[in-house]
Amino acid sequence: MNAVILDSVKIDLNIVLDKIESLSNNIKSIEKSIGFCSDSIDDLNVKLEEAVKKISDIENKMLRYEHKCNKLEKEVNILKAVINNNEQLMLSNKIEISGIPKTANENITEVVKTLAQSLKCDVQDCDIIDAFRGKAYKNMDGKIYTHLISKNIKELFVKNIKLRYKNNNPLLANEIHRNFPENKIFINDQLTSHNKKLLWFSKEVAKNYNYKYTWANMRGIFMRKGEGDQVIKIHNLETLQKMDQNKKISELWDSSSVDLK
Fold it and tell me: Does the keyword Signal feature in the UniProt annotation (predicted)?
């Protein structure tokens, strides 16, 4: 009987030993897997550090490029401003006249001379380098563009018509020709395309923020809230955007041309 018990114990012991050996093999396999995972993690960490370094290098490059782009944008805007100012200087002797109806076979030079007489400006044929009528716009006769021989004569036109309006005595078209209607005639400095757009945006801001006066001349574009208030010079589109504090016309800024910056 003891032999039977001993054999049973041996069998159980062998089973336990087999399980221990199997467990030992499993542990070795796990250790091997852990070692492989550890190596993989180390490799992954190296690759991750390399990726982080590359991303950091790319971000630094992007910051440098962004800085260069901002610098170039400022330089381009400065150059655009210089070009616009030079173009405006080239218009120093030019005016645009609105309010005079168009007639068949009209002689624009004679129209300008008659206008000059009404404003008490001594203007001869030799004082007018060029004069022509622009295209009609929204069922309105085109403006008359006049290139005068000197800045003094140009300023005399502008000064005298402003004096008429200041004295509540606007110049009317029927003073030029008795058959013309009583249209008010306006004479302004001729502006560059850029300054015309900027003036239009300025008038939109003026309408929405109750600015009484908006005007342009060879020195720039200006706004004033009312009599005696501070005069604001409009340097660029950003000046107007800052004035639009309540975002009343924010859609205009989204649709505006980059050229106005």
Answer: no
